[in-house]
Each structure stands twice: as C-alpha cells, then as structure tokens.
Amino acid sequence: MPRDGASDEKALVRIRLESDAGGEKQEQSLEGEWYSKNRTIYLRYEETEGANLVRTLLSWKDGRLRLVRQGDVESEQIFSAGGRHSGYYRSDNVQFRWRRRRLFSES
C-alpha cells in the first residue's frame, strides 16, 4: 500500500540497448519491467549472451541514479550531479573498484 501519498505503479516495457565496445557496435532489444515504489522509480531487465545471464536494476530517487548488475557480471555504479561515489565491477576475468570524484555539476 502506498505511503505518504506515493503511488505504486508497474508496467512491462521494451528496452533498446546500444553499445560500442572497441569499435564494435551492438544493439539489443529486451523486455523489462518499470515500476514505482516508495517514491523510487525502478527499471529491471535481464540480458543473456550464450549461457551468460546478467540481471540489471536501475533505480532513480531524489536526483540519484543507481545501476546494479548481478549474474555472470556484477557491478554497481551511482551517478548524481556533483556527487562523489564509489563502485565496483567483477567478472570471471577481471575485478576492480573505483572512487569517482565529481562526475559533473549543475550550473
């Protein structure tokens, strides 16, 4: 049940992912779920490549975007205007962490 006047909504969505890795462009069309819960907007979808599966969850609240990937690749990235955030990336081949200073700032 919604709290504080927030409405909870859900919808199935089609997502188009475009990537450019090392000059190789790829495009994927995926199905996902968009929903709103407790004043946060979420987008959830799964990517498969061969036997590999990665579940992705994007969340947006109060000017902050959080990207979490789980499965054969695991990572977390957070973005906000002028924010300083840390993150990580893990796969079978590589693992690293980072701390980002100000990504950008609003004028």
UniProtKB/TrEMBL annotation:
Pfam families: DUF1934 (PF09148). SUPFAM superfamilies: Lipocalins (SSF50814). InterPro entries: Calycin (IPR012674), DUF1934 (IPR015231). It comes from the Bacteria. This is DUF1934 domain-containing protein. It comes from Cohnella faecalis.
